Amino acid sequence: MRPRYLRRPPRPLKRVGYWWSPEEPLLPHPRDYVDLSWDEGERQDVVAYLQSAYYLYGWMGFSWCRFGCPEGIGAWDMTDGTWLFPEGLAHYVAKHAVKPRPEFLEHIRQAGFRMPELPEAEPLVLIGDLAQAVRGILNDYIRVHNELFGGRFLRTLRRLVPIPGFFKVITPPTHIWLLPALGMQLESIMVQIATEGAPDQTALTLASYTEALLQAIRKLGRICTQLDRRRDSPAEYTELQYRDDVAQYETAVAHYRGLGMQLKRAFPAP
């Protein structure tokens, strides 16, 4: 089957099939979802469904099987327009009888095990197209930054420290999913720059800027995630940790903005 790609998610996507790793120890382990009694016919239908999904975000390397299989099991995040899942989920279903969680499985059943038709993205083959895509991601990220900081980094801190008490969480839940989504789009663009872009100074400048913007988005994402977690564990994120994270984020912002001046000379705004 010919691979099909989407440039941007059509809506906020539900996540499924992301597993435990040393870097993310709170995620579930796939062994807890093994069901050897699962109907074989339905399992194969689910495998076919997953394998026919749309490619959305590319990563810089292959994922690894949590059951110890030696081969890499995918380097992309896939979507059916409603759910987001790793390319390797089909491997877990096919090779290890890992049964997806009930709401996702019911969604597949309701679709008749047929992938919906979604608008496909045109391949981004020109450096100018890639730069335009990065500019769109930048605009989405700036809206989040401005909502949190309003242009001043410590303003959010003052809003977060009521008297009496400490840290009143203001992070909207949308930021928790939006920033990682923007980061994954940048990672996909970086892969395309490396594989499709001309090896000249313009491509190198765009690659450096994209990497710097990605780091800034990741640092802001950490701040949002930590603030959101404080609702359950207030002691886990202190004022000192917040100030340190903001300082690192401010440095990352200054870095990508500096590279942005070089990028403007190569790609002036229309």
List the helices and strands and how they pair.
Layout: E1 14-15, H1 40-51, E2 54-58, E3 76-79, E4 83-86, H2 89-96, H3 102-110, H4 127-149, H5 155-160, H6 173-196, H7 201-229, H8 239-266
Parallel strand pairs: 1-4
Antiparallel strand pairs: 2-3, 3-4
Helix pairs in contact: 1-2, 4-6, 4-7, 6-7, 7-8
Proportion of strand residues: 5-15%
Radius of gyration (Å)? 21 Å
- Which stretches are poorly predicted, pLDDT < 50 over at least 5 residues? 151-172
Ends: how far apart? Answer: 38 Å
Mean pLDDT: 80
Number of H/I helices = 8
Q: What helical percentage do the residues reach? A: 40-55%
Total individual domains: 2
Folded structure, characterized:
By secondary structure, this protein is mainly α. It has 2 domains: 14-110, no CATH class; 127-266. The protein contains 8 helices and 4 strands; from the N terminus they run E-H-E-E-E-H-H-H-H-H-H-H. Strand 3 and strand 4 form a beta hairpin. Helix 1 packs antiparallel against helix 2, helix 4 packs parallel to helix 7 and helix 7 packs antiparallel against helix 8 (239-266). The longest helix is centred in the last third of the chain and has 29 residues, at 201-229. It is globular.
